[in-house]
Amino acid sequence: MLTLAACHKAPDWSYEKEWRYVDIAFRNQHPIKASRIILGAKIRDPMRTEVVRVARVLGVELLQAGLSRRNFAIEIGKATDGGA
User: Fold this and answer.
1) 10 Å Cβ neighbour count for 40?
2) How far is CA 38 from each of CA 24, 27, 54, 74, rounded to the nearest angstrom?
3) Dist. CA 68–CA 3, nearest whole Å
4) Is the CB of residue 78 less than 8 Å from the CB of residue 63?
5) 45 in helix, strand or coil?
6) pLDDT of residue 84
7) Which of 31, 38, 54, 68 has CB atoms 3.0–4.6 Å from 73's, for a disulfide?
8) Can you give the pLDDT at residue 33?
9) C-alpha span between 14 and 56 (Å, rounded)
10) What span, in angstroms and rounded, lies between the C-alpha atoms of 39 and 63?
11) Taking the model in full, what pTM does it have?
């Protein structure tokens, strides 16, 4: 069931043009490389620390989503390492 949830996305979110890669065997060999990782607006430690670490290891651009102060929207900008 978890695999099914990870592989599918509600049609309401189709505009995001998001790709999902799920390694069911949890191997360390990945045929594709992410171009960037976007941290969610409400991500918490220790998950944030771990994602920052992985992004550094993989050499992937790290962005941070945040709630807009002006509009009902999410803004995405450069992430700071936050001491991680």
Assistant:
1) 13
2) 22, 23, 12, 12
3) 32
4) yes
5) coil
6) 40
7) 68
8) 75
9) 29
10) 6
11) 0.62
